[in-house]
Amino acid sequence: MPRLADVLYSDQISEGPPVVEFERRFGALVGSPHVLSFYSGTAALHAALVLAGVKPGDDVVSTAMTAEPTNMAIYHAGAKIVWADVDPANGNLAADSIAERITSRTRAIMVVHYGGIPASIASIRKVAAQRGLPVIEDAAHALGARYDGRLIGSHSEFVMFSLQAIKHLTTVDGGMLACNGASDVAKLLCEGRKFRWFGIDRAAPRTEVDVTSVGYKYHMNNVTATIGLVQLGYIESVIAHHVDNGRFFDRALQGIPGLSLCRWDDNAEPSYWFYTVSVEDRDGFFRHLAANGITSSQAHKRNDRHTVFSASRCELPGLDTFYRRMIHIPCGWWVDKERREYIVDVIRRGW
């Protein structure tokens, strides 16, 4: 609260030095020196698509196993969604399915690290490189996760992090975009800053600028950036608590009849935003946990069942298998050791 009071009673509450400092420190957290802030993760995804060269009428290969904003951002860019199938072992996009969906109209690949489990980045990036396509990672669930020893945020051309209210780190609402590997990163960042502020370079005198492209009001402000700066002081312990709980469940939920656990690449290290299990009689499982005071949910409706995305519908057998049985149980920082042991005990009683 003292930090917020300092900002609220200062002479600038919109975008200023706290935003710049937050971008710098967040970049260090995710292993990318070039980070742009936005007022939401969806805005950051829209920016990533435009900066990646996606134009109206282009195709973007994406996943239906995600929150709706992932794919709404593709519509915001005027592009068409082409669904690829997921690995039924974890709900993440499968590289071989992505390869099958790529055509001459494809301009980008949108990858989600569902539930904090890193997708198979090496395989996906190999497919993308063969076709000269940029990869955009939606890492809304995956702050602090790693792949091949490197933090999520450092692998692909664009990586979005959500700072919405219930994420690992929150600014109430907000998003960050890590930009990697550009041949002219200074130009890319300049374009990104203009994109988030009406096409205007805020560093130039307002009466002397010439707006040459469409921009939006997508910038972060000093108030939310200050919340983020304070949160950074705690985020490592928060993520560590998620990971500790997730690994506990990895061990303790083995061998339960009617329940199976997610599987992922050996070189993936999840950050466990929530914990996903696959169960027989999901409704019975949900009722059993609820009767014992434990929350569980499917979290997201598969996007291909929304009317707004109906033009992209296709057969997705991997997603059918995953979605039919998956359910999430809590493993966040608020779940202490006593609570997680209770959750396991309740599940082991059967449903």
Based on the model shown, name its key terms.
7-stranded mixed β-sheet; 351 residues; Aspartate Aminotransferase, domain 2; alpha/beta; 37% helix; Aspartate Aminotransferase, domain 1; 3-stranded antiparallel β-sheet
Short description:
The chain is an alpha/beta fold and 351 residues long. Helix content is 37%, strand content 15%.
Mean pLDDT: 96
Low-confidence stretches: none
| Rg result | 21 Å
CATH architecture of the largest domain: 3-Layer(aba) Sandwich
Percent range for β-strand residues? 5-15%
Distance between the termini: 45 Å
> Major β-sheet, in short?
7 strands, mixed
Specify the CATH homologous superfamily of the largest domain: Type I PLP-dependent aspartate aminotransferase-like (Major domain)
Q: Regarding CATH, which class of the largest domain?
A: Alpha Beta
| Main sheet strand line-up | 1-9-8-5-4-2-3
Helix-strand pattern, N to C? HHEHEHEHEHEEEEEHHHEEEHHEH
Global outline? globular
- The secondary structure category is alpha/beta
Can you put this structure into words, describing what you see?
- It is a single chain.
- The protein is 37% helix and 15% strand.
- Strands 1-9-8-5-4-2-3 form a seven-stranded mixed β-sheet, sandwiched between helices. The chain has a three-stranded antiparallel β-sheet with strand order 7-6-11, with no helix packed on it. It has a three-stranded antiparallel β-sheet with strand order 10-12-13.
- It has 351 residues and is of the alpha/beta class.
- The protein has twelve helices and 13 strands.
- Strand 2, helix 4 and strand 3 form a beta-alpha-beta unit.
